Records
---
Amino acid sequence: MAYRYDILSPEQSLQFDAMTFPAYRRFLGGGGVAAGVWFKDEPAGLALCGQGNGRTTAELLSLYVAPFHRLGGVGTSLLGLAEAMLTAGGMDKMHTTWNETMTGSPALRALLAKRKWCAPYKRLLTLRGDMSGAFGSQVRAKYPRYESADCVPRGYSLGPWADMTSAERAIILSKQGQPNWYAPRSNPFREEKFLVPNMSQVLRKEGEVVGWLTVHRTMPDTLRYTDVFIRSDLKRAGAVAIAMVTHAFWLHMAEGTPKLTMGVERDNEPLIRMCENRMAMCSTLGWTWGAEKHLGV
């Protein structure tokens, strides 16, 4: 078969909009870098890239080959074109992420290996549950003591985000990037217009803000547990995190939205164990994986 590989112009890339996720279509027509493959003047595959963390790092947002054209090396060639294009543009590194529950996950892993990307690594465990079904039943049956905000260890207290004072807000903002605190990418005030203030919580120790749990509405029937943060130098942080999240489950049931999703960083071992050992039978779990490649090597 005769394929034509192109670095797509913004106008051309719009013809490939069905070949990427809806959330990434804004990168077509400008703002992203797209490599495409044509077959008889029809789109057959797309590699879409965006700016990663750092000026010389690119992110592979999506890679898609139409079913009829798979298993013939088209995806490998398409990724190779994207890598060459980014190298020529001064990029030093590429990275990508995907969820293991994705249908094309095994094929993507094989393709990255062919292109000599690094071995994939776990990044985030995603939990999905239904408060109106088995997940809510598990919380009610196994964790009744967490219904009260007094469930946190001695010396700590939980309060609703809505009750945070302006002085506490200023303190949180002043701690960004400081040792034991949070990185700029985890600013709890991002996406604030979607935050659910009576479910999101502020954690205090002896009256001082030391952590939080932020919850955002992503769909009418779904809430996302976005950030679970506790100052890293505190003892018993694992027990506190479990108490904070499980209390949020009770708040969630009272709020009434049926579904939840939560991402847990791979180094948050207490919450990972809770999800995998206690909640696995009543939820859907899946790891998000990452991989990277140094270009020009």
---
Amino acid sequence: MEYTVQKLGQLAGVSTRTLRYYDEIGILKPARINSSGYRIYGQAEVDRLQQILFYRELGVSLDRIKKIITDPSFDKAKALAEHRAQLLDKRRQLDLLIVNVEKTISMTEGRATMTDKEKFEGFKQRLIEENEQKYGKEIREKYGDDTVDQSNEKLKNMTQEEYEEVTALEKRILDTLAEALKDGDPASETAQRAADLHKQWLTYYWKEYSKEAHAGLAQMYVDDERFKAYYDKQQPGTAEFLRDAVYIYTEQKR
């Protein structure tokens, strides 16, 4: 079956403007343009749009989606299986948050008690799931399942105070990096303070710290576009600057 841009938009629940934009950026081209100049979409395009919307639901950027689905090695069946696994993880996360809210309601009404640890379980689980979805594959390939699982377990067992500390520390790292970038010297006192804060942040998650692993992680921030985008969103070049500062801090050679 074939669809005009308007009918496909109605079918998928997206605007015609969105479909035209997908065409413009090359992520979803119509099968053909008819004699009246209308975009016409076939079954292959319907299936691709479904894949795009699956990825969008999981929070993947359009640039990343384009690279994934235009890759010659793209495996549709494998991608669907991965979507299913991620959605199940998302459902488990929502179930945990629902239970957390129900317990909080019961506590507020005086029908139950709730430990401080229980109050934050849902939020910490959400952070773990988000990190797994965004970076899990690369991190597990680089450091192994045991290391990542231990890191997740440390996060789950954090006290409220520790959780607040590590969240505040992440902001301090970004603020210090922004200040250090003004001088542009990764060996400066401010840049090295940023590297030290980054080390402190890592110790909240890692079972044990090593200079080699720290330097390797900093390099991955540059090599992986998603990490790079996170650090560079306020100022381009931040990821590379942090990498250079960490290499000096850890006395490692690139």
---
Amino acid sequence: MTSTPHGRRASLDKQPHEVAAMFDGVASRYDLTNTVLSFGQDRGWRRATRAALGLEPGERVLDVGAGTGVSTEELARSGAYVVGADLSLGMLLAGRRTRPEVPLLAGDALRLPFGDATFDAVTISFALRNVADPDAALRELARVTRPGGRLVVCEFSQPTNPLFRTVYLSYLMGSLPAVARRVSSNPDAYVYLAESIRAWPDQAGLAGRIAGAGWRAVAWRNLTGGVVALHRAVRD
């Protein structure tokens, strides 16, 4: 964990206590900051995640890395019963204040507090990248999903157009931290954000890791030109 005058940030080895402490530090303005930094695209990404899961009323769904529950709330619009889990107690407390009707539980993606085959669908949005062992997390997500159940991973990825990718990386590494200093309660966390996105595998690379964790029928769809990708898969 690195501490600076602006706050605390995790290192890229992503130790759980460091990641949790970093997100505790951004919890109070997390949702606002995400909307500003994404130019409002975050709302569309959440809607696309819900659509990709193909949820039916009454299904049981787990939203891992739920943070303040903004994604959990969106998923529940389907009529499914959705539970959010997150490592950061600060994020969960912020969510319980603003969304008291959303079920939010403390939970580590590597050791989920649920039995085998509990859920019809599982999803993780912008959080797999923050786990120390993403492959183990994907296997843990499979463990709690029933056979035939669905997975959707919504995560930052690689823009497919070379010119747009150059512009995007310039924003990511230069402008994004500067904007975060104006709106975030812990701007240095967004330096980590930029570095972790740059180090993350591209669409095909993540698809291979999902398949390697035991999921089948892996496919992806790009959003916002590949800034974000939705990866879908089915549990054997």
---
Amino acid sequence: MAFVPFDDRDGWIWMDGDFVPWRDAKTHVLTHALHYGSSVFEGERMYDGEIFKLTEHSERLRRSAELLDFELPYSVAEIDAACKATCERMGLRDCYVRPVAYRGPEQVSVSAGKTKVHVAIAVWDWPSYFDPETKAKGIRLEWAKWRRPDPMTAPTAAKAAGLYMICTLSKHAAERDGYADALMLDYRGQVAEATGANIFFVRDGALHTPTPDCFLNGLTRQTAIKLARERGIEVIERAIFPDELSTFSECFITGSAAEITPVAEIGEHVYKPGQISETLVNDYTALVNGQLELAL
């Protein structure tokens, strides 16, 4: 597939209550978010005309903005409606949905009280975050140099754009080394997450996953936990240390973009996607496509 820059596409983007031609959806170079990271966003997926966990995403967008000390000019219901309308305007029923909220260019300084808050929503076709063949076999991760920060040094409960800088650096390094992604530790040296997805491990039929106390408790993570418990699989949320990785038999990551993706390798540790990973991949696929009901 030919590479198409994101600023040179056909279609429409919802901006501050109106639809704007895709190529005209612009902001000024002195936008506060560009200089000071005052931006929050969501990543969502629409399956067969339904955006999975749409309201939860919109609620988190508002909470993230509040953590960055600004308030969205739209309610959760209005954001939900705008996301649906954008997908309809683009004629898409299976797509990726990206709402973003940010401070504008009225003030360029650390102080930003005079800026206007903007909200935009773009949607596009994005079948799979990872190559399907690679995903089926399990992706390879390397160790990231960067660590997730202490929640006393950054608003780690927010899905804030600035928190992803070290994720970009880590993913670039991994891709240069031939890996699909990187596994990040936290500020304490405990296993945290991949660059854009939470992580799970399997040992003796139980799932082990890091406690999300300095990174996002992802909505797909929460869904995977509920799916596992529905199957009678024990889920243990706890501190996980790097020297434990050789004791696990399976591994997978979760995220709205990644969905549920098995992991075949983390550095020197090798895993084989097994029954639990396969079951949860299938259950998640059935759930988001309306073929499985779950008390969510």
